[in-house]
């Protein structure tokens, strides 16, 4: 089947796109988008990959599900469009960056600026029905995104994986820690952050230190 994704990823994942589970997933997603309101918009389903070609991946941040409110999701985990109020998890991410690196809290919640620097902002499930969290889970997206993580783990070196919360930690189980860096903490959601499991993790400065030690430029968070 023809998947509209950056050529670097198309080449690396071509076998995945030909598997029966992906055919079934594509058929399900097509039907959902034809009959219901779904997010992100169809052309942005693979935005995380389009903004961060395989060769340029330096950092991977794992999310779970796209936002399911109007005009929020733009295909990058934790990210929202310009002018959209910042969801609570994103607020806590920006607060931690401010404390960790002294960077002022930004107006825009659009994280395309990170993706364009080599941060793959990967949700485990790439689509969702409006106002129905988790509605596209267990349809095949998780199998696909596991394959993406394995592909990065197998074919690259020195990538920094940021795994926030139990779900992301489980999803990162297959990462080869002998050649990649894995930083874990609680999730930035208020539930976790207010229990002291998020703030103070200093993941953003730690990530840049690891990249710079490898001779790679850090991320302008």
Automatic annotation (TrEMBL):
Q: State where the protein is found.
A: Cytoplasm
SMART domains this protein is in? UDG, UreE_C
Q: Which GO terms describe its molecular function?
A: uracil DNA N-glycosylase activity
Ranges for domain Uracil-DNA glycosylase-like:
50-211
- Recite the UniProt keywords alphabetically: Cytoplasm, DNA damage, DNA repair, Glycosidase, Hydrolase
Kindly give the InterPro entries that the UniProt entry links to this protein. Answer: UDG_fam1, Ura-DNA_Glyclase_AS, Uracil-DNA_glycosylase-like, Uracil-DNA_glycosylase-like_sf
Instruction: Name where it mostly resides.
Output: cytoplasm
Q: Might you give the EC number(s) for this enzyme?
A: 3.2.2.27
Its family remark reads: Belongs to the uracil-DNA glycosylase (UDG) superfamily. UNG family.
- HAMAP family, from UniProt? UDG (MF_00148)
The protein, known as: Uracil-DNA glycosylase
User: Lineage of the source organism?
Assistant: Bacteria, Pseudomonadati, Bacteroidota, Flavobacteriia, Flavobacteriales
């Amino acid at each position: 089947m023809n998947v509209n994704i950056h050529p670097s990823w198309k080449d690396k994942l071509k076998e995945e796109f030909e598997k029966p589970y992906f055919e079934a997933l594509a058929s399900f997603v097509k039907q959902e988008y034809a009959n219901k309101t779904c997010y992100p918009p169809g052309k942005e389903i693979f935005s995380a990959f389009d903004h961060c070609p395989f060769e340029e991946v330096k950092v991977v941040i794992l999310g779970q599900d796209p936002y399911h409110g109007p005009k929020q999701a733009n295909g990058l985990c934790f990210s929202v469009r310009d002018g959209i109020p910042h969801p609570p998890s994103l607020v806590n991410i920006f607060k931690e960056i401010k404390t960790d690196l002294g960077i002022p809290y930004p107006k825009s919640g659009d994280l395309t600026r990170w993706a364009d620097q080599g941060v793959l902002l990967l949700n485990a499930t790439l689509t969702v029905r409006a106002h129905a969290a988790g509605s596209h889970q267990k349809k095949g997206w998780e199998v696909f995104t596991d394959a993406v993580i394995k592909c990065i783990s197998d074919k690259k070196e020195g990538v920094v994986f940021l795994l926030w919360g139990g779900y992301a930690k489980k999803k990162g189980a297959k990462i080869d820690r002998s050649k990649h860096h894995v930083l874990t903490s609680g999730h930035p959601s208020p539930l976790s952050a207010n229990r002291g499991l998020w703030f103070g993790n200093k993941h953003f400065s730690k990530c840049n230190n690891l990249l710079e030690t490898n001779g790679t430029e850090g991320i302008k968070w």
